[in-house]
Structures are given as structure tokens and as C-alpha cells.
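Pinned message: reference record for Prepilin-type N-terminal cleavage/methylation domain-containing protein
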Amino acid sequence: MNRYKQKVDKERKNFWRREQGFTLVEVMAGIVILSVVAMMAMTFFSSSLSYSKINENKTVMVNLARNALVYAEKQDFAAWKQYFVTSNKSEVTGMACLSGSACSQYSFLVPNSSPEVLARVLNPSVNGVKYTVTIRYQKMSSSSAAALPASVANIKNDTNYLLPIVVSVQGPEHQNGMSGTSVEGYITNETIR
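Predicted structure (C-alpha cells):
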């Protein structure tokens, strides 16, 4: 047994003496491979962060659109009907309503609140980012009405009780070619609320 132990000890010592380490080429190849893997990982995390930021911004815009939709739904139906249907105007935009005094052109649409409130609804700022809201009247075309069942088309065309609107929100990245978001809804007559 003693001989066996001596032989193992001798082989172990020889192994460590023969070990020369890594060559410079092997070290450089390892660094290059590690660098490529690190760059790929950084690209993945960078694109994930960008995608997350886009989704966060989209969520904010959807919530702002819903807020503006609820605000419009609670206003006087007759005033909105007169603006959209009788006056044949198609939109209320935040671009024309940057301040309370500039919003006075829309003041008859919101008789129960001040134009400053409408200006804040149409031009909200969230976390220092400014957005622009546009409320558009969705007039039903004859071709789209023909595609719907008659009962549904009659309801959608009946401006005595429902005004179909689309609320669109644009963020600052709209100038960079990125799109905003839209939410559809109805301003309903007070008699059916």
C-alpha cells in the first residue's frame, strides 16, 4: 500500500510540474468570445429596455385617452351634438387649446367646468412628458353602415342619443414617427345615462 501511495504522490507532483498554463493565444481567444457574448447580452437588455419604455408610454396614453373619454361623456350632450352634428365640426383638439384662454372657443362644450380644466384634459403632462389629446366625431359613412346589420346601423346613426367619438393621444415621440393611441366611445344623451 505504501508503494501505491508513493506512486500517486509522484504522479501528482509530475502533473503540476508539467502544467504550463494558458498560452497568450488561448487567453486572447477567451477574451474575444467573452466580449462577443457580453455584447449580445447588452444588445438584448438594451432592446428590452426600449420595448419596455414604449409599452409604458402606450399604457400612459391609453389611460389619458380613457380619462378624456370619461370627461367628454359627462358633459352636456346637446352642446356636443350641436358642435359635431349641427355645426358640422369634426374634432376638439388640444393643439388649439394650449391654455385656458385659448380653450374659450370650446367653453360652451363644458358649461359645468372651466376652460382651464378642458385645457388640462386636452394637454396633459405626466412625469414631465406632454401629450396632446384630440376628440374626433366618428360620422358613420354609408359604406360602413351598409356592412352592419340594419338595427346596429340605425343605433349608430341615431345622433339623438349617441355621438360616436374617437379619442386620440399623441406623445412627444409622434414627431419621431412613432404613433399614438386611440380609444373609441360614445357621448350619450342624459336621458339614457
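Pinned by admin. Summary line: The first strand starts at residue 91 and ends at 93.
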